[in-house]
Amino acid sequence: RRLGEVIPRRMPEFLAGTDQPPITNGSGRWELSQWIVSEDNPLTARVIVNRIWQHHFGKGLVGTTNNFGQLGERPTHPQLLDWLASWLVDHDWSLKKLHRLMMLSLTYQQSSLQDEDIIRRDPDNRLLVRMSPQRLEAEPIRDSMLAVAGRLDLTQGGPATAEIDLPRRSLYIQTRRFTRNAYAMLFDCANPEQSVARREVSTTAPQALFLLNGDFVKQQSQAVAARLEQESPADGPERIQRAYQLLFGRPASDVEVAIGSQFLEQAPDRQQGWHEYTHLLLCSNEFFYVE
What we know:
Elements: H1 13-16, H2 29-36, H3 44-57, H4 78-90, H5 95-103, H6 116-121, E1 134-135, H7 138-148, H8 182-186, H9 205-213, H10 215-231, H11 237-248, H12 254-266, H13 270-282, H14 285-288, E2 289-290
Antiparallel strand pairs: 1-2
């Protein structure tokens, strides 16, 4: 009932400052887009850098990914955040180059193993002196199983589907707001009805039951066993070594080879033994965590 003075349309002053021209024509979307990517806007590049950093390191330089305001957390490394934001703008906003820069850094290539005294002094790894182990998200879990099984369909484009048994990348699995995919919910996919800054990571009994009893996982373990038989015909330690190289990217230790050989020797049927052995490897923590 007490209307104020009419002012011309423009970006809110608390975002863009007072020194800005009014919007006199059109919807204002063009002006909004120009402000978003302006070099004078301190937020856009920093928000992008922080989200990509969170993707690779598990936690952003600013822990509150959706809140850079007064109630949000302070950045743990403000100078690094500023430098990366400036670097992104200087390199034409290329996210591909930014991913490469982070992944080739010595910080990203650190081991997750560290001296116990250092871990005790910095349990949350805020100083980035080691790599924090991260569990794969729902989509990479599924895609990784299909990839090691030699079944992942890398065809690009085309319609999405609701079936998780098809070998297409999880990018092409439908996300429905009201009938959410059971597999996606099981492994902590984001709620499609909300803006989710960071997915939660849970460890629950249904996850273990899915891995042990799910038809999808059993199909991939059998395909992995068939692939190992083809790539390493010698049924022995050589095939076990190939399994470790394929699934974990490292050679198996002598103890691991001995355990695998003993497991296979005790199987009543050799082929069934390999199916169960590859199933066991697919369900291991090392397959699910990036260290």
